[in-house]
Amino acid sequence: MPSYTVTVATGSQWFAGTDDYIYLSLVGSTGCSEKHLLDKPFYNDFERGAIDSYDVTVDEELGEIQLVKIEKRKYWLHDDWYLKYITLKTPYGDYIEFPCYRWITGEGEIILRDGRAKLARDDQIHVLKQHRRKELETRQKLYRWMEWNPGFPLSIDAKCHKDLPRDIQFDSEKGVDFVLNYSKAMENLFINRFMHMFQSSWSDFADFEKIFVKISNTISERVMNHWQEDLMFGYQFLNGCNPVLIQQCMKLPEKLPVTTEMVECSLERQLTLQQEVEQGNIFIVDFELLDGIDANKTDPCTLQFLAAPICLLYKNLDNKMVPIAIQLNQVPGDENPIFLPSDAKYDWLLAKIWVRSSDFHVHQTITHLLRTHLVSEVFGIAMYRQLPAVHPIFKLLVAHVRFTIAINTKAREQLICEYGLFDKANATGGGGHVQMVQRAMQELTYTSLCFPEAIKARGMDSTEDIPYYFYRDDGLLVWEAIKKFTAEVVGIYYESDQVVEEDQELQDFVKDVYVYGIRGNKASGFPKSIKTREKLSEYLTVVIFTASAQHAAVNFGQYDWCSWIPNAPPTMRAPPPTAKGVVTIEQIVETLPDRGRSCWHLGAVWALSQFQENELFLGMYPEEHFIEKPVKEAMARFRKDLDTVVSVIAERNKNKKLPYYYLSPDRIPNSVAI
Question: Where on the tree of life does the source sit, at the highest rank (predicted)?
């Protein structure tokens, strides 16, 4: 009688093992086997991290094995099991791999196909077509779209983390409890004694050092020592944690009536302001999005304020960016003066602090939350709903949506919900952050997620004219490495543009993103379908780059740049000044966040800047969803290309007082998971 050797690998994460009964059946082209109990006498099967082998003898020839069915039945209490993969050795000595990487819960069962990636057109056998269809039907019931707030991208239909499908939950929910993590962060930073001191102001700038943790030679310490300098202020628009707003000023806006006379002492080329604009030396950051956004009113004891500044920057003769004019609100007038470097010291300093605070709000809510977290969740939900596990694009993308839906669900549960942690310290809490996302959704375009095009659209692409823009330089290297990799994978599975166009599952995935994620907004430019291999490669690059590199660039520098509170105040407790010559140091300190809010802010930026335990970085694919040699070779080339990028960045950073490393691939996690 034919005999098969079945090898079963159990996951190594917490609680992955099981004591339940595990049964296996084989489905072949000429017949099906009986149900076999996988059990060895006097042996604890399916322990966490174990690889167990069993001999399975069948009554008759089964032909080519098409499916493996695994059933789990209760032994004592329900005991979830994480199955990594099954390997089958046939009676003829062939080995067949069946990747799984999923949880089997309750009295559950799972039917696996072998690991070769297949498009729907490759499946001619009825049983395989049926398996493909059933898997998607089941997933579409599990992964449902929901509107969390009007105007937002749709998200997963789950009120809290435990409502999520087991396969996308965190291994340990405790590890991503924001309340716990922020409190733990404050404890680690020895600042918990201040955390309840709301309404209590610091006495001066030096007083902020009481909650500032000195880690020698870090960027944060350099920020603390140089934050008041114009060069440090300008540098952050290029290489801080929100390097996506600065753009070349092609024409001075009418709402900023600045003249050559006002800024003459800042211009170094003996040209008029208009001539400097024409020569490409003037840059602008406009926080128009914040105009009219409601400030946080959740604490009746503390008034909080927002502004919508416009900041003009100048590229000096050293090719460094310095601010030359700041107007704190959008409509010019006597009570909205243009602040200048030639003004009194504290007038100019407070104007810059207002810009830094506004930058913090746009960074947190738009650059970080909307444009990485929420967008990546959209790609993740659409992938689970429309691509079966056997589809090559599912196999490619699954590592890049790992834990994204879970972290966002947790954020909606604890962080950005009504009365959530976001309300504690941020001036845009209490609903302002919701208004901001609703506005920014109108501006969210597909091309703005295509890194090279986004850089070009802001006029920031010339390395010769703007030499110190490391975010751009490193981002382009990573984008190209990802694009080369996705093009290779697409080339392996799609022999022509026609095959792309006829792949209905792929088209449904793209359509789901457009219709539900982007809410069918035509102006967004998101494709409704994809017709060529080149466009598919670009689309996949957008998905992977957004989840990995873009998120890393705007997330992991938060402690570096925002831990010195005056450099990134999460709230302001007095309105913007309406006249010059009246600002004092005392007034600035009274405007900055109080002790309690400073501590919550510090706990947040510390917690958000930490990598996950067992973090998987770009190019690491420990789950072997792909088994074919050509793809494995493409992955090896991808890792090699990324190693080259790591070396280039390390060489550039040598001896730099302010190294830029957020886009070094060895520091870019595969997915949005924090």
Answer: Eukaryota
